């Protein structure tokens, strides 16, 4: 299990985003050499956890619980076949393109040591947005990506450090529940009857996703799924 590339994006003005000023950092490219990774601070003020990486819409992206976005090269290969076009590392806006890591099967709260010092914790999955659809330029993209339910993982920074291409990824902690990134994504998008199960992940789950699950349970009078 390893990092293939570390990807960062620069701000660019486009016509397919509703971010103020029409600026996005979704177009990420592999960086040369090590990149420093640290907790960027709370959502709304903190951006990317990677030095030199642009997050332009702080309302919906960035912050402690979305500090780093990881996506599997194996999934990019799947979409290359589906779309019939090459997809380089970073094309989906991911900071870490991984190889051999079960990103979508990772448990919420699972911790990865990346390289010598960096420790990351899985917090949620990526929900596709208009900017993502506009960037790829594929018809019906939001629905197709959602149905696949392999969104990649947002991670928070537990221990800061540097990351570079080729760094090994080691799972150093797996929590005692079965809430994966894929399950959490399905519950938060098309299968909302699964939302009560997300509460099993506790405080490790992104606060917004956790609040949505709690609200769903409260509205159903405290009844669980099933």
How would you describe the overall organization of this protein?
This protein is of the alpha+beta class. It has helices at 73-83, 130-136, 141-148, 181-188, 195-198, 207-219, and strands at 2-9, 12-13, 23-24, 28-30, 35-37, 68-72, 96-99, 111-114, 118-125, 153-159, 161-163, 169-173. The strands form three sheets. An eight-stranded mixed sheet has the order 4-1-7-6-10-9-8-12. It has a two-stranded antiparallel ribbon with strand order 2-3. Strands 5-11 form a two-stranded antiparallel ribbon. The mean pLDDT is 93.
Question: In summary, what is this structure?
Answer:
The protein has 226 residues and is an alpha+beta fold. The protein is 23% helix and 24% strand. Strands 4-1-7-6-10-9-8-12 form an eight-stranded mixed sheet. Strands 2-3 form a two-stranded antiparallel sheet.
């Amino acid at each position: 299990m390893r990092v293939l590339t570390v990807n960062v994006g620069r701000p660019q003005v486009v016509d397919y985003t509703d971010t103020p000023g029409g600026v996005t950092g979704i177009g990420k490219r592999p960086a040369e050499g090590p990149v420093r990774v640290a907790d960027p601070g709370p959502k709304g003020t903190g951006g990317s956890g990677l030095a030199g990486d642009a997050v332009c819409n702080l309302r919906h992206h960035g912050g402690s619980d979305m500090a780093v976005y990881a996506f599997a090269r194996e999934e990019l290969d799947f979409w290359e076949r589906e779309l019939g076009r090459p997809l380089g590392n970073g094309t989906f806006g991911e900071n870490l393109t991984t190889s051999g890591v079960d990103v979508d099967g990772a448990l919420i709260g699972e911790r990865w040591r990346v390289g010598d010092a960096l420790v990351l914790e899985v917090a949620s999955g990526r929900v596709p947005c208009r900017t993502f659809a506009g960037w790829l330029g594929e018809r019906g993209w939001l629905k197709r990506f959602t149905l696949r339910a392999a969104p990649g993982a947002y991670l928070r920074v537990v221990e800061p450090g540097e990351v570079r291409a080729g760094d090994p990824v080691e799972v150093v902690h797996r929590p005692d529940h079965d809430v994966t990134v894929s399950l959490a994504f399905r519950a938060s998008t098309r299968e909302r009857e699964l939302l009560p199960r997300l509460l099993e992940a506790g405080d490790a789950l992104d606060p917004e996703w956790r609040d949505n699950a709690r609200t769903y349970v409260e509205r159903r009078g405290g009844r669980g799924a099933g």
